[in-house]
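I'd like us to work through together how a protein chain folds, taking it slowly. To get us started, please write out a protein record for me. Label the sequence line and the structure token line clearly, so we can match residues to local backbone shapes. Once you have written the record down, we can walk along the chain together.
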Amino acid sequence: MTNSALLVMDVQRDIVALVDDGSGYLPRLRGAIDGARAAGVPVIHVVLGLRPGDPGVGPRNKAMGAIVRAGLCTEGTPGAAIHDAVAPRRGEVVVTKRRGSAFSGSDLDLVLRARGIDSLVLTGIATSGVVLSTLWHAADLDFGLTVLADGCLDRDPEVHRMLTGKLFPRCADVVTVEEWVGAVAPL
């Protein structure tokens, strides 16, 4: 039997403001979080935390450089905070990462291993960013993986469809929030 955790990644005010298309993403994600809590599945929040003018981002890193230049997800700013719609409860772990993957520059692996977690349920913004990066990193670390397709969001709907429909199923179960919540709901 697996010991799972739900990862809610990069659902921060700055990122939601850029990507949320009004499709009901936040309420749907909140349903996954509520379902996990009801089933006793730990919810772990992952945030991108950059230092002002981040000296750790080199000039060749296009994606992270654009985030730094835009002043997004800078530690201590209101935009770097987790969006109120999916805010962590007291006692829930919040992990700060420094790059794309939830494992990059964070203590996520340590937190998971200390809790005996061997299976991850991935959600977050963006499908082509943190979700993709974390999926491959977690697969290399031998975690069991599930992706909640509608618990992820991307600026480009076609990229989202390609990743969740074709690429992610190669190493993860890809299901909807409703399907997953129905499978983990207490009897």
In short: The domain at 4-184 is CATH 3.40.50.850 (Rossmann fold). The chain has one domain: 4-184.
